[in-house]
Amino acid sequence: MPVPAADAALAGGIEGPRALRPLLGTVLDALANGAADRAGPLPAGGPDAVARTVRATCAPLLPDDGDGAHAALATLVRTLAAGAADPADPHCAAHLHCPPLAVAAAADLAASALNPSMDSWD
Fold first, then answer.
1. What molecular function does GO assign, one term (predicted)?
2. Which residue, among 9, 1, 5, has the nearest Cα to 65 in the 3D structure?
3. Mind listing the pLDDT tens digit of every residue in the chain (122 residues)?
4. Nearest-angstrom CA–CA distance, 33 and 52
């Protein structure tokens, strides 16, 4: 039977928070770095530039060897954050979606770690 990768720990259970903590640091740093790269409410170059950047960053789509959880998260989250509209920026006040509250994002993480199937209790 194949052995799971060291960074394939589960998010729930007694050890879940310990496995999540360093990954969350990586994600939060990547979100901050991506927002700094964007440097405004919208990414420069519009959707076409964002699509080119995402394609280049994610190539090859299924590499023979992975980079590991931290490197993959840092790269992908930073790229996505840099290419995202920022509804928290005052210049996006008329945007269709309101910015998420930090407490809501934290609660979403908790819900995801506890039971990703929120429509049932089994």
1. transaminase activity
2. 5
3. 565 566 679 998 899 999 999 999 999 999 999 999 999 999 999 999 999 999 999 998 888 888 999 999 999 999 999 999 999 998 887 767 888 999 999 999 998 998 777 676 66
4. 19
Q: Give the other-Cβ count within 10 Å of 92's Cβ.
A: 17
Residues in the chain: 122
Q: How far apart are CA 25 and CA 22, in angstroms?
A: 5
What sign does the dihedral 12-14-18-19 (CA atoms) show? negative
Query: What letters, b where the CB count within 10 A reaches 16 and e where it falls short, cover 43-59?
Result: beeeeeebeebeeeeee
